[in-house]
Amino acid sequence: MSIEHDTIVGEVRVLHEDLARWLGAADAPDALAAFTGQLHPDFSMVGLDGAVVPLAPLAAGLRGAGNSTPGLTIDITDIDVLHRSADCAVVRFREVHHRPEGPAARVTTALLLPDPQARNGLRWRTVHETATTG
Q1: Which of 30, 54, 87, 123 could bond 115 through an S-S bridge, CB–CB 3.0 to 4.6 Å?
Q2: Cβ neighbours of residue 102 under 8 Å, at least 6 residues apart?
Q3: What is the model's pTM?
Q4: Band of residue 133 on the pLDDT scale cut at 50, 70, 90
Q5: Pairwise CA distance, residues 32 & 104, whole Å
Q6: What are residue 99's DSSP bridge partners?
Q7: Domain boundaries, the chain
Q8: CA angle, corner 133, sides to 126 and 127, nearest 5?
């Protein structure tokens, strides 16, 4: 049985809500743990600069970034589940980070793996971000 489409979409949205709360609110001490707790132990991401960042350095950088972008919100649109099976899901979506200095848009592709211990039964294995305009 494949991973449910609505489960994937829900996880994409809630993970980014956690990230926005951590980076954009002064009173969100649980948001970082909620965000990093969803990442697979072997997680890595390809950031906007093309650098591959493993989980440990990402988590370390985020620890010092709480409320670094007051008022940050992240809109998630154009969610396209490219693949889903019992073993994994691949999803691509558009993120718009609304920051005080103006919005920053990106397209993100992610691989999610099933994990019954994780929220929504999914863990993030890798993401690849590409900057876009508008």
Answers
A1: 123
A2: none
A3: 0.94
A4: confident
A5: 21
A6: 102
A7: 5-132
A8: 0
Amino acid at 36: T
Is domain 5-132 in CATH 3.10.450.50, yes or no? yes
How does the average pLDDT of the chain come out, rounded?
95
Q: What is the C-alpha R_g of the chain?
A: 14
Q: Which token pair is 85?
A: 């099976």
CA-based torsion, 23, 58, 7, 111: positive or negative = positive
- Burial pattern 6-45, b for ≥16 Cβ within 10 A else e, equals ebbbebbebbbbbbbbbbbbeebeebbebbbebbbeebbb
Q: Which of 70, 105, 102, 84 is nearest to 11 (CA)?
A: 84
- pLDDT tier at 134, thresholds 50, 70, 90: low
Sign of CA dihedral 119, 125, 131, 134: negative
Q: Is residue 2 very low, low, confident or very high in pLDDT (cuts 50, 70, 90)?
A: confident
